[in-house]
Amino acid sequence: MERAIERGAAAQSAPAPRKLTAQTIKAAIAAGVSLVCLVCLLAAGVVGRELADIGVNGAFSGAAVIGALFQGGKLSYSYLVDGEKIFVTAYLPTAIGVLLTLCIALFLALFLYQAALVVLFRKRGEDNAARLNAIGGWAGIGLGFLCLVVYALLITLNIPTTYLVTAGLEDVAVQAAFYKVFSPSVIWLVLCPVCIVAGMIQRKIDSAQVVLLKRYIPSYLFMVFPLLLIAVFNLYPIVLQTVLSFKDYSLGTGIFNSPWVGMANFKEIFLSPEMLRVIGNTLYISLLKLIGATVPPLLLSIFLYDMRMMRAKKVVQTIVYIPHFFSWVIIYAITYAFLNEEGLLSTWLGTSSSILTDPDWFIFIVVLTNIWKELGWGTILYLAALSSVPPELYEAAKLDGAGPWQRVWRITLPSILPIVMYLLIINLGQILKNAGGEQLLLFANAVTKPKAMVIDTWLYWSSLGELKYSLGAAMSFFQAAVGMVLVYGCNKLSKKTTGIGMW
Questions:
Q1: What spatial distance separates the first Cα and last Cα of the chain, rounded to whole Å?
Q2: Which of 185, 214, 424, 433 could in theory staple to 45 by disulfide, Cβ–Cβ 3.0 to 4.6 A?
Q3: Are 273 and 184 in a shared domain?
Q4: What is the extent of the structural domain holding 125?
Q5: How many domains are contained in the chain?
Q6: SS (H, E, C) 418-456
Q7: Residue burial 313-352, b: 16+ Cβ < 10 Å; e: rest
Q8: Does 390 reside within a domain?
Q9: Together in a domain, 192 and 319
Q10: Of 210, 229, 244, which residue constitutes the final position of a domain?
Q11: Rounded CA gap, 91 and 161, in Å?
């Protein structure tokens, strides 16, 4: 009886097991993700064999790469050709082997850190748990970007690599660029977003957000199918295009079986005088269109805002809005009816020539028709911004003796500056795509074709027409990269100078 009482007292005095809290759960999830990534790197292929000229492909696991470091980078395999066994010995460069091993070691260290956090939180409580989880989250995000860097290095490094082909009694030693002997595994591209998302969850989500997540789980489930569609029809083509830009693609071999060429496509873009002219022409036309898409709609919106005759205002708005809904085919037909040899303008001027075939007038016509088409549509956001300006400001300015231009400069423009900066940032991010390929393809002819040669038209005429798919993919990759940098830079500059930004 006394022993039973003692056991009951001991049970009551023993500390109750700690409940799983948000910080512990985050650390456990991060540890699980790190472990899965580590297993994938050790068991799956981290680098492949890419001997396209003899039809060899496959993958070496992380464990095989680590083992090769102790054998001078030696990686061997064999394959059959017409019943004869061919042995291939490829020598992984030491720098690449060390880099891949270092990545695996970092994933191991991250897993041990996350596992230690789980044990620490369960044993000693969650003092400084948020800070420790934030460190783990940043480490996971850093490893995610490291995976992307490793993939980029594996497809671009021009390190001389040797492989030995043995057939019967004959040995043939060949030296080639690294990316022609080995290929990067897609596992690096998979681990990149996985690590970044896991790191952001570990760093950002707190207890209150976990409660909200549990509450809105059914709502989030509705997002699964749209996200899958985005992944299949947006993200996957982007990955294919990125891979294609570093390969010498041919229709017979397909994207993944085509040989890697490193930075050869990008070198052709930046070293070719023709490509530099195309990029320069694109920037020139895009900047003119950017000015035309900003200044005229802004002036028209100010004019419409000050109109007091509502019926006339609606008529003007309707007239300037209609061209936006016309296709470029209709716009060109209207332009041709006015500007061809027998058009209205030529008849009125009494000339038999057409300025549509004059290279000196080509860019002017392109920019002018673009302004006419998009003028009304561009005023919508400006008018919406102006409608939120308190009328009392204008009345007070009038009482103080401010003239119309002073009111515009001191009240109107500062009030709509946020929307102006927003549109400017968006348009600058698309500056390499805003030249208007569809419009230029319609307006160009044999005489004005050099003036119409921008990136979009080059992709159509040269990339698709001459089957330069890899070069076209590299150019598209360059467009996207420049656009991303411009959007980020313009947003930073806008926040620094005006305090206004998109995020």
A1: 70
A2: 185
A3: no
A4: 21-210
A5: 2
A6: HHHHHHHHHHHHCCCCCCCHHHHHHHCCCCCCCCCCCHH
A7: eeebbeebeebeeeebeebbeebeeebbeebeebeeeeee
A8: yes
A9: no
A10: 210
A11: 7
On whether both 201 and 298 belong to a single domain, the answer is no
Whose CA is closest to 456, among 443, 447, 446?
443
Torsional sign, CA 196, 198, 201, 203: negative
CATH number for 346 = 1.10.3720.10
pLDDT one-digit tens code per residue, 350-367? 666 678 888 888 999 999
Angle at 253 between CA 250 and CA 258, to 5 degrees: 75
Give every CB contact of residue 264 below 8 A, 6+ residues apart in sequence: 248
Residues 205, 272: one domain?
no
412 phi/psi in degrees, rounded to 5: -65, -55
- Give me the pLDDT at residue 56, please: 46
CB 136 within 8 A of CB 195: no
Give domain status of residue 225, yes or no: no
* pLDDT, block means (10 residues), the chain with 503 residues: 53 51 82 90 73 54 84 73 69 85 92 90 76 89 90 81 67 74 80 89 74 78 89 86 85 78 84 86 91 88 82 86 91 88 73 78 92 88 82 80 80 82 78 84 89 88 78 86 82 72 65
Q: What is the pLDDT of residue 351?
A: 66
Co-location of 294 and 392 in the same domain:
yes
pLDDT at 284: 92
Are 46 and 170 part of one and the same domain?
Answer: yes
How much is the pLDDT for 52? 44
**Among candidate residues 374, 368, 371, 378, the one with its CA nearest the CA of residue 297:** 378
pLDDT at residue number 55: 44
Within-domain flag for 237: no
